[in-house]
Amino acid sequence: MEILDHAEGAVNLSRLNTVGVVLFNHNRDQVIGKVLQAWVENGRSMAEIEFDSDAEAEKIFSKVKSGTLKTTSVRYTVDAWEEVKAGAVSVDRRFTGPCMIARKWTPMEASIVSVPADATVGVGRADGGPADLSLYERQIQINQNKMEVRA
What we know:
The chain is mainly beta. Helix content is 12%, strand content 39%. It has helices spanning 14-19, 55-66; strands spanning 2-4, 21-24, 27-41, 44-51, 71-84, 99-113. Strands 1, 2, 3, 4, 5 and 6 form a six-stranded mixed β-sheet that branches.
């Protein structure tokens, strides 16, 4: 199991906050919006995004509004890992192995995805469950993500 640490100083959000884009299914050729602001709150990565106004972005935004697309994901790089062997406990005592914990990591982009690696993350999940999307038009909240690193 791979875990993205969200402790103070673990997530470097500078890239998302300066040049962050929103993709569809991590496809670099399908830019559908931009990250307005990214932050960590209550142990979760969050982001406010704005969809573009072109036909492709509007199509994806429509599927988000209708509830067809509900999940998000991030592509990230990891600068520091902690490996926790089976039965062992992590340095901060929060996790039991076997697992790999990304202790220092950087989100590279945010994506609206059709098939997530972690189905517990997604649109409007600030309170841990599905939200009334009418309250969140033009906003996607990116939460704690557990996915494999993409080279």
